[in-house]
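User: Could you check the structure of this?
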Amino acid sequence: MRLQSLFLSLAACAAITLPQFASAGEWPAGAESQFLSQCEKAATEKAGAARAKTVCECSDKAITSKLSTAELKQVANSDNGVDAQLQKKMMDAAASCRTSK
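Assistant: Sure, the predicted structure tokens are below.
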């Protein structure tokens, strides 16, 4: 009986957390390193190289956990900039990275 109870608890946890993992996306080939490079270049001017690297790596993890693979492809393939709604979603995802020390 304990095993069945444990199984039900694990199943309930999986059902709750599965949507979080389902929305996590992956960058297209080469796009993640390009994102990190551009991010670090822009952030270094304001925060210094070490802090920029930390913030950008955190931002990358946050963004990939909140955006789908299709959204990350849109970002990577946007020669004319990212649309406002998607840009807001990225900024919201990475907000805690900019404020944490």
